[in-house]
Amino acid sequence: MSTLHEPLRTALELAAIGVPVLPLRAGKAPFGNCPQCANNACGGRPNMKSAGPCRCPGVCHAWAAATTAPAVLTSPAWASAWERAVCVAYHPGAAGLTVVDLDNAVAVDWAHETLPATRAVQTTRGEHWIYWGAMSSHNAVRPGVDIKSTMAYARYLGPGTGTMTALPDAVRALAVKEPSPVRPAPRSLSVPARPGGGQCPHRTPVFLERGIAMAEQRLTAARSAIHATVYRTFLAVLSTHGRCGCLTDTHIARLFTAAQAKGETARHCTDAWTNARTTLGL
After folding, report:
1. Is the pTM value of this prediction over 0.90?
2. Exposure string for 4-30, b = 16+ CB within 10 A, e = fewer
């Protein structure tokens, strides 16, 4: 073990007690995707819900790359990463843990007043409070406070002090936010009538329905670049139907609903729709 780099030695010690680990490079960042997994082609996406960890032998997907397997940690595929690593990170949720990341002194004071005491680890600017129990991860649940558990990684900064306690409802409650008001879809387009007395050539139900259905299908099938896909889809719909006034609130709402089902926010939908109209001069 004397020839091991310090981060790898620490990683093996954590893996031996069931804590999945991975190396971090300078800047506390994980190593980038390998060529085989570029653009997260294998599905092990670090910041989105996915089917499971990447199966690539390299170190390429942050929390999804974390492992407890010594054979993987010491494999040639990971050797270069450990040589360049500056510290070790771990996947709290996979170890049955939740880390409340308190980023400054104000946040630490708030935790002392609000949360049950548990094991605390000093960080550069604040503390990590570690609880038994996993939950979903959330950033900025309040000023200076992040929750790191499933599908997130936290730096390992030592064993800390104090007795670890069970994840309290007070921490789970931090992740429950008030529902955002639903922004209505834009009203029907107000656009100039086409030449020829304003007669709309697209009011045949079959033609218009087919166009909206194809746009919905395109949005539903999107697997990446969601923002760009939404904008391009809106642009295509407006380029065909935007100048004759045949689009109704119902049609637009269907497009917004399909986009939001892929994770797009109502605000982004409205912005994309507005930008598409501006591009087309509507």
Report:
1. no
2. eeebbebbbebbeeebbbbbbeeeeeb
